[in-house]
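Input set for joint prediction.
Command: fold jointly, output tokens.
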Amino acid sequence: MNSQSEEDYLKALYHLEMEFDSVSTNSIADYLDMKPSSVTDMLKKLAEKKFINYQKYKGTSLTKKGKLIALSIIRKHRLWETFLVDKLGFGWDQVHIIAEQLEHIKSEELIKNLDNFLGNPKYDPHGDPIPNKDGEIEKMNQKLLVELKASQKGIITGVKKGTASLLNYLDKEKVKLGDSIKVIEILEFDGTYIVEINKRKLTFSEKICQNLLLETND
Amino acid sequence: MNSQSEEDYLKALYHLEMEFDSVSTNSIADYLDMKPSSVTDMLKKLAEKKFINYQKYKGTSLTKKGKLIALSIIRKHRLWETFLVDKLGFGWDQVHIIAEQLEHIKSEELIKNLDNFLGNPKYDPHGDPIPNKDGEIEKMNQKLLVELKASQKGIITGVKKGTASLLNYLDKEKVKLGDSIKVIEILEFDGTYIVEINKRKLTFSEKICQNLLLETND
DNA sequence: ATATTTTTTTAGACTAAACTAAAAATTACA
DNA sequence: TGTAATTTTTAGTTTAGTCTAAAAAAATAT
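tokens >
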């Protein structure tokens, strides 16, 4: 059984590997708000357990084993976030801190049952994909709505950082994450998009289209 | 903020105080499966924080402050157990270990929302009362069905220790914890009870009546 | 190419929460 | 009541995970 701290490091490693192509001791320390010397200690331990590839001064990367654990934590985190928003009525911006705690609860059965209870969701309330029990994560082709041409389709998965208010707007328009969207027409003169969501026609300004994230299948 | 370990001790103290009138270092060690010397260390710490009254060699008791914390942990434990059984479909006998972990999650808001989501239950799946947010616990008049006379009423709150199979039986008969029960008639010659639950007449053997726990209001 | 700066690691210390072994206090009993 | 048994505490050790300060390695710049 891995400690909470080990799990936090593996998760951090995963996120950093996604975002950058090499992961340094300092970047981990920054991410986790710890001192580099503490990170070095933990990296040795994780290497010992074969969760990471690590050579002094040479940076680090997750092994297959380590990545699977990271993904299982992320799965739990995102399922719990979904629970908090869908069932307990939290706002999507309030759930992260609580899910950081819940993700460390140890019980396979619990997660299996929670997943079923939630209806086996594929995306969490922020639009991030939820890995399945084998750690497979839908590799999204994340795009902005503005990148689509007329007649193309996608699934709404989130909004860009710092555009919280857009989510509120979408909510008011009864548009939810996970909804399918299809581009009907793009107006030449101001870049306005006419789209169809849930069989309803909606009009989005160019600004909105630059901040709305979609998953596409091309 | 109190540590998980501190919370475990306070909860143990509460349960031991309920069951026995004086709580010794050894009894705590037994209950928590730890060495007495470890317990002494923690008692000093808890006394320092004014959670317990403690004098060397003289046993210990919870202060008001300590008892409130214990009750808040028990509240969380029982709400989570209710969630696991009512919503996730766990058996009442599978949930304790998971709830031991969940009870330490820190978020007032979470518990408030969970409580509402569950419909503000008053009893957990084992029939134990759930303290309210101020630590008030319904003092039940716990009785066995066999102690009731004809026409008396109660609420089914659980079964006696070691009679797991009875719960299964009740389940099959569509009798749930929290259901109201009324004694219609008691047969002289074998002590069989005819009772009414959910407007249905049911027949319980004397053995069943000796193991079925009720809350009554006398 | 060497000196300076930055990054990373090492060495040693700290804290919380457990432990073992031994000492001290209390309780039990003959 | 005095000795033996039991309970509790003390003293010192361990482990996990953090820290600071200093040393070592790598990267950068003149």
